[in-house]
Amino acid sequence: MTDIQTYAEVVDEAARTASAIPQFTSSGPLSVADAYAVQAASIERRLKRGEKLVGVKMGLTSRAKMKQVNVDEVVWGRLTDAMRLEEGASLSKRRFVHPRIEPELAFLLKAPLTGEVTAAEAMAAVAAIAPAMEIIDSRYQNFKFALPDVIADNSSSSGFVVGDWSSPTQDFSNLGLVMEVDGRPVEIGSTAAILGNPSRSLVAAARLAGAALGRLEAGWIILAGGATAAHSLKVGERVRLTMQNLGSVSIRVA
Ligand code: OOG
Ligand code: MG
User: Fold this and answer.
1) Comparing C-alpha atoms, which of 128, 87, 122 is closest to residue 108?
2) Contact residues of ligand 1, CB 6 A cut-off
3) pLDDT band at 1 (very low <50, low <70, confident <90, very high)
4) Centroid of ligand 2 to alpha carbon of 2 (angstroms)
């Protein structure tokens, strides 16, 4: 039997102290259901320390992302207020093991959402959309993991920054995007890389995360998943994502 609480403490401490750990699956089997239970228990520890749940991140919703980490199932994780960075903020690399950054689209919910919904029903619950970047920092050595490992590790989520909100009634199914590091384009893509249309990621969030959490709440942010491969952050870098029609969002690394 898997000791959920022990695993949760191990992964929570690894995140808290920015220290890499061996994969759980290298010492024995871990089911996907138990992995989500570990994720829930580890985030519960953060909530007990005063953090608040503010949304959900979807992951491995594009081929580029699946290929980069060699896992090809859609996963999800929990976002807390402590993970949010302000636009232009400076991220202290010391607080992470080996952080990467990736371009995403964020949804802001105005109504709760859960279960099997159509894309139109999901979008009816959306107040706004925005360009966003997620900072992922696998707590596993060498950023290597199997599906249950990454799920237990909150799907690598470590931080996120969201740009200005725009109307969700515009067509965002195929918006060009460029992620630049110090003015140099490092990843170029389109929101279409996210399951063909990011609204499908929101539908998946309602089905997977909504079911597990009861529902996705009004006011929550849902990250649709990286549209391109992620970039490994180095001290001194300034990273900016610009998305067609939606504007830019940036951070710097200190
Ligand atoms: C897993 C998390 C994937 C995304 O947007 O696809 C993810 C990882 O790449 O470490 O956040
Ligand atoms: Mg991501």
Assistant:
1) 128
2) 57, 59-61, 65, 69, 102, 134, 136, 138, 150, 155-156, 225-226
3) low
4) 27
**What would the 3-class secondary structure string for 81-105 be?**
HHHEECCCCEECHHHCCCCEEEEEE
Predicted confidence at residue 2, as pLDDT, reads 72
Q: Distances in Å between the alpha carbon of 221 and those of 18, 33, 95, 104, 109?
A: 25, 24, 23, 12, 6
How far apart (Å, rounded) are the C-alpha atoms in residues 62 and 102?
A: 12
Nearest protein Cα to ligand 1, atom 8 = 156
pLDDT digits (tens, 9 = 90+) for 159-190: 999 999 999 999 999 999 999 999 999 999 99
What are the tokens at 47?
Answer: 């909530």
Element (H, E) at 74: none
**Could you tell me which residues come within 8 angstroms of residue 10 by beta carbon, excluding any fewer than 6 positions away?**
21
Task: Report d(CA 7, CA 151) in Å as an integer.
Answer: 12
Q: How far apart are the first and last CA of the chain?
A: 42
Amino acid at 199: S
The CATH number of the domain holding residue 163 is: 3.90.850.10
Q: What is the number of domains present in the chain?
A: 1
Name every residue whose Cβ is closer than 8 Å to that of residue 85 and which is 6 or more positions away in sequence: 91, 135, 159, 160, 161, 251
Domain span at 70: 4-253
Burial class of residue 184 in the structure, from the number of CB atoms within 10 Å of its CB (0-12 exposed, 13-18 middle, 19+ buried): exposed
| CB-based contact 125:161 (threshold 8 Å) | no
Indicate which residue's Cα is closest to atom 9 of ligand 1: 69
What CA–CA distance (Å, rounded) separates 105 from 213? 22
